[in-house]
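Page 47, continued from p. 46.
Same chain as before, 634 aa.
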Amino acid sequence: MPVEEALTDLKQRVKERLPSNIKITELEFEGPEVVIYTDDPRAFADNGEIVKKLARELRKRIVVRPDPRVLADPETSIQEISNIVPEEAGLTNHYFDLDTGEVVIEAKKPGLVIGRHGATLREITKQIGWTPRVVRTPPIESVTVKEIRQYLRSFSDERKELLKAMGRKIHREVTSKDQWIRTTTLGGCREVGRTSFVLSTPESRILIDCGVNMGSEDSATPYLYAPEVSPLDQIDAVIVTHAHLDHAGLVPLLFKYGYDGPIYCTPPTRDLMSLLQLDYIDVAAREGRKIPYDSAKIREVIKHSVALNYGGVTDIAPDVRLTFHNAGHILGSSIAHFHVGEGLYNVAFTGDFKYEQSRLFDPAVNSFPRLEALIMEATYGGPHDQTPSRRDAENKLYSTIRHTLSKGGKVLIPAFAVGRSQEVMIGLEEGIRRHIIDEIPVYLDGMIWEATAIHTTYPEYLNNDLRNMIFHEGMNPFLSDSFVQVEQNMRDDIVKGEPCVILATSGMLNGGPVMEYLKALGPQENNTLVFVGYQAEGTLGRRIQKGWKEIPISNNGKTATMQINMNVETVEGFSGHSDRQQLIEYVKRLNPRPEKIITSHGEENKCLDLASTIYKKFKIETRSPMNLETIRFL
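Result:
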């Protein structure tokens, strides 16, 4: 059935299911959603279950929006909201989006804005017409989140047309009678970096991740010219499992070479991805390296983004539905589960995942409605990759800090801005609060503070323990007085000053402010360099970790040699990746257990060894493909 006919049919089916007192003015596909416009949103508000019932019966993501003509003006709306919501809710801000008819209400106590079973929200809708969405006031304001919201509002008309075009493509008629499913590996197989896959059916092509290999100039980019993914404008959707550059660093490049479709990710991934991509091209420009895209392409990614929360089933192509599940790796990281056809086949891509409760997140989800195939990481899949417990890791870090401070030295921790920094921050805050280590300044340089602000913007993605600590016990570890946000003019004073701990990006010593500290502190024996995250092959971090004492560094455009005399320690246990035992335990506890497992995102021997071990233990068909292999699932 053509799209226009499908819309007409769907509109009729919706009308048949609505009570006679509820009228709709328009029905439209907008991205993956079916949007119902009404000049009487109060009637929908009075029938709280009706949208859920429609979504179940029609098997579509349904959103009700008020016809723009019935919306109260923002000033009147703010006054009405203030009259309805109890004062103790602590309202702090309002954001009105005319494109969606939605008002975002920021409050210190969002539960009081929602009301019992959503009663207060429904009352707000009845009085002002706008659809309210409540978020908690972030303890730390994020410049990135604020700018992204403003940017999306400024392009609301253009974005609405984009969503309509996406919707018509998603809900187009299925034409092929063939049934097959396959994936092609474009990057990140038997290596760490430039992760990218394409999932293909006779009807659609879905790109999963598009990362950059930060440790290599020769093989930095996925094989985007492969026939399975070329031309790029034929791709139906791009899925981003999480924000790290080895999975999302080259997503803007797709828009440079012809892609113009949706980018599906969680809201935190969208914001963190933008932050990291902007930093990536900024560092490349300052170091005289070729910039793969400009900031305008990052804005295109934001404009085309469709943000999905965990658990929602979403149509992304005529024959493919997507569901994101918590991966436990970094904020907003997802396992992407694809349901192909009407129950034909189910495949999941883990991205990077952590199958263990961490300071920040719950363990990765291991239960799915159906699962026939799994593509999983093998970063720490080798036979000797056993990670210490988080408590043991923190104790080693405390011991290293105490020893360095006793010598009058400084501790430099190269940290990924997203994930590892926040895990280490929480550990350091507890160590100082409990007097395990001295009360010293902990300097945060690079994007760490802004990334932390984004974490506080999305508390629903953090684990219960941390949420309770922040919002119910009144103790936010991120706001400790020990943490000092570094401005560029402070670095010289920090290097010359008293003993301290410095967390600075980047995590693999491939650029960023950490290099200034390394140049200043590296030659002195009383200082310590502490690695808390994975160091990819080919990076400067891996070379120093291996014991290199002389390293090449860039100095005013020229290459010089630097002596590393400082103590070098690796503290494992802060990683957001699963170690070998956790990877095997994850497979053991998968429900249901898949028929096929593919290992990727690991050095060659680790991918092969993990695949072999899974086959021997569980008798599951396993593969560890090279890049550019195509594997047929059905």
